[in-house]
Amino acid sequence: MTIDHATVRIARPCTDLAAAERFYVHGLGLAELFRKPDLLMAGPRGASWHLELVAGDLRPTPTEEDLLVLYLGEPVDPALVERLTEHGGTVVSQGEYWDRWGVTVQDPDGYRLVLSTRSWSNSA
Q1: How far apart, in whole angstroms, are the C-alpha atoms of residue 124 and residue 115?
Q2: Which domain holds residue 93?
Q3: Domain VOC spans what residues (predicted)?
Q4: pTM of this structure
C-alpha cells in the first residue's frame, strides 16, 4: 500500500454552514462538490483534496496553529483577500514566517487560511 497519491479530506465543524459557504465558496472560490443540510464539501474541481464543513452539536475550537495553507506559487491577489473579508473573513497576523510569505485570513469560525506566495517545492 502507498499513500503517495492519496486524496485528502480535511473535516472541520462549523457553527454556521451558510457563513462557511460564503467564505470558502463565494470568497475563496472553491467549488461546491457535495451538499446535505448539515454538510458542505468544497474544493477545487478535479483536485486531490477537499474541505468538509459539518454543522452540528460539535463546536469549533481552532487554535492559532490550525492552518490550512494554500501554496499559490505567486503573489496573493489583493482582490482575493478583499473577497474573503467581504465574505466573513478577517486578515490576521500569523507570525513572522507566514506574514513574510503570504496573507492569513481567519474564517468565520476562527480557523486560519494561509494564502502563501511560495510554491510547495520551495516551502521547506
Answers
A1: 16
A2: 8-122
A3: 2-118
A4: 0.93
